[in-house]
User: What shape does this take?
Amino acid sequence: MTNWRLRGNCLDRDPELFFSTAAGDQARAKAVCTGCIVRLQCLRAADLEEAELVDHKMVNGVRGGLTGMERWARRFPEEHERILEQKRQSNERNKEAKRKAYANMTPEQKERDRASKAASNKRRRLDPKYQRAEAARLARRKMATA
Ligand code: SF4
Assistant: This one.
């Protein structure tokens, strides 16, 4: 183990947190990296290791305060932008399809749809996973405005 690793904030943290793909966990892992005195060394080491990878491979896990996707996006900005654009277009198509489907519904179908969405949102808000993600989102927003 290289010496700088022994000085990382994550040394006594659960490694699962750093390799989780859940947004809430990733935000918590990144919060651990914030203020880590070896953050730059850590990020540089990740960059060097990942530069060796072939086929534009992406490595999961938060290192140096960035997720695997964020480090990948730094290495391949054009490819990342192309993927984001594809997602934007796909979202637009989905939204348009939903809008058309909703416009063709009868008033009774629209009422059932509204009730079903309200029930689903209520269930989601009671889900501990959603509550953790929401707490992480609020913490990120607070950090961004501090
Ligand atoms: S920057 Fe993050 S992942 Fe890297 S050593 Fe520090 S706490 Fe650990």
Q: What stands out?
A: Residues 8-10, 32-33, 36, 38-39, 42, 63-65 surround iron/sulfur cluster (CB under 6 Å). Residues 113-146 form one domain. The CA atoms of residues 138 and 144 lie 10 Å apart. The chain has a mean pLDDT of 92.
